[in-house]
Amino acid sequence: MGKGMRWDSKPLPLHYKHNHIFVKFGVSILLLGLAFRLLSSDSTRISSVLEETHTPPLAEAEPKTDSPVVSQPIQPPLSSVFPENETQTSEIVAEKCDIFMGDWIADESGPAYTNESCHVIEGHQNCMSNGRPDSGYLYWRWNPRNCELPRFNSERFLDLMRNKSWAFIGDSISRNHVQSLLCILSQVEQAVEVYHDEEFRSKRWHFPSHNFTLSVIWTPFLIKAAIFEDLNGVSSSEIQLYLDKLDEKWTEQYKDFDYAVIAGGKWFLKTAIYHENNNITGCHYCPGKNLTELGFAYAYRKALQLVLNFITSNDHKAFVFFRTTTPDHFENGEWFSGGNCNRTMPFKEGEVDMRDIDTIMRDIELEEAEKAVEVGSGYGVILKLLDTTRLSVLRPDGHPGPYRQFQPFAKDKNAEVQNDCLHWCLPGPIDSWNDLLMELVVNGEKYR
Ligand SMILES: *[C@@H]1O[C@H](CO)[C@@H](O)[C@H](O)[C@H]1NC(C)=O
Ligand SMILES: *[C@@H]1O[C@H](CO)[C@@H](O)[C@H](O)[C@H]1NC(C)=O
Ligand SMILES: *[C@@H]1O[C@H](CO)[C@@H](O)[C@H](O)[C@H]1NC(C)=O
Ligand SMILES: *[C@@H]1O[C@H](CO)[C@@H](O)[C@H](O)[C@H]1NC(C)=O
Ligand SMILES: *[C@@H]1O[C@H](CO)[C@@H](O)[C@H](O)[C@H]1NC(C)=O
Ligand SMILES: *[C@@H]1O[C@H](CO)[C@@H](O)[C@H](O)[C@H]1NC(C)=O
Ligand SMILES: *[C@@H]1O[C@H](CO)[C@@H](O)[C@H](O)[C@H]1NC(C)=O
Prior knowledge:
Layout: H1 26-30, H2 32-35, H3 37-40, H4 78-81, H5 86-95, E1 102-106, E2 140-144, H6 154-160, E3 165-170, H7 172-185, E4 192-196, E5 203-207, E6 212-218, E7 223-226, E8 239-246, H8 248-251, E9 259-263, E10 272-276, E11 279-284, H9 296-312, E12 319-323, H10 356-378, E13 382-386, H11 389-393, H12 430-443
Helix pairs in contact: 7-12, 9-10
The chain binds 2-acetamido-2-deoxy-beta-D-glucopyranose (7 copies).
One 2-acetamido-2-deoxy-beta-D-glucopyranose binds at residues 163, 165, 211.
């Protein structure tokens, strides 16, 4: 990665082309300082520029019909436990499915909560309250191809979680995700916020009648990082990233968590100076610095190896999900050049390809997680992949777009407003991530 690349500023075609093998970060990287505001901004801030480099499409991710096969059950397959019972074996094998392969199907029942019933929806993601005019995006359900995915059952979930503790560990998409869970659970019990950090990025809630604790920890790199951004996300200096040190913000609390949902991703695209062994070893996109360009993929892989090794070798045995990278859907331009996401329907499988950046990141995630699952299973750690990338690629209609702001067109219907095509409306498609989480907690051994 990182060499011989071209910048292509053409609007992204609906059908992403497949002829670009490399990605040019040039122009987009220059703007990255501003770009990532949303990932770091808190709910009270009005930030104007969206995150993320938008790269022209890479080679098409081949339409894989096989599964990413990473979230394997810790137990040996039943077929090897009961080899003598042919009937039983074949039935169970037939039952196994990849719940991440499927389609979005129309679902009249609609979301489990609304802007009225849930009070913890961050302003930027509260599409209903902000005046998003269409509501069709609320009436879809993820339908795995070869098995049933039940809707999230809040009562059952809270009963299972009595005296337990969960953490969502990652960037602002993890906060987006935890808010979805809080909203779904609020049908049964309202959470009490018991902690927040100064910037309201990390929080903790308690469900008193179930003695269930839910946390979100903001650690966008998962590893140690010095980030020099002001409150608007404008960077005054390069990020210093320590590729051989974990971020203690989450590792110090790790032993308290029975379950964790960990995710990395987009922050690794930013300009950063890489440190290893108390020494600067290179960087990602730092022209003029006379440092070796190591590429974000190098840093991301190192970081994931460190994170996953910490989990699999830890004395504390948690049930850990690693969530794969989340796609965005800027079209008709980039995040900084008027890109938007005004579709109102999901894509069907085959109508869209995963973008280059997402393919690169997810491939690293699958490879590293697959190795860690094997290692972890030997140590009694349950590690599963929450492979939401592909199903999320199919939901261009689920982002706030201009409705990250309250009534963006109230004064001027042609107003030029910054779009958010990365985070997800609440309610919205991200609610399905929790359907998947619950099913994997309850029936994980059923899936490949
Ligand atoms: C095999 O499995 C079937 C279905 O679960 C069960 O009815 C049957 O008793 C089993 N046979 C043996 C030999 O375990
Ligand atoms: C919820 O959204 C609707 C529009 O969908 C709006 O009329 C209503 O005022 C919103 N309620 C709150 C509490 O924001
Ligand atoms: C939860 O903890 C309380 C107090 O320690 C204990 O009495 C109760 O049995 C526990 N419940 C479960 C389901 O573990
Ligand atoms: C709540 O759960 C914690 C374990 O997470 C346990 O130590 C504590 O005793 C429980 N408290 C009550 C009141 O059940
Ligand atoms: C520090 O990194 C540079 C560049 O990679 C290398 O040449 C040098 O030997 C390293 N120094 C130490 C003390 O590791
Ligand atoms: C870049 O670094 C190399 C070795 O670290 C050094 O030989 C070279 O002079 C440096 N170039 C500039 C322009 O500083
Ligand atoms: C979506 O945005 C594009 C470009 O900004 C515009 O041409 C198109 O008409 C929009 N579609 C809808 C349905 O608003």
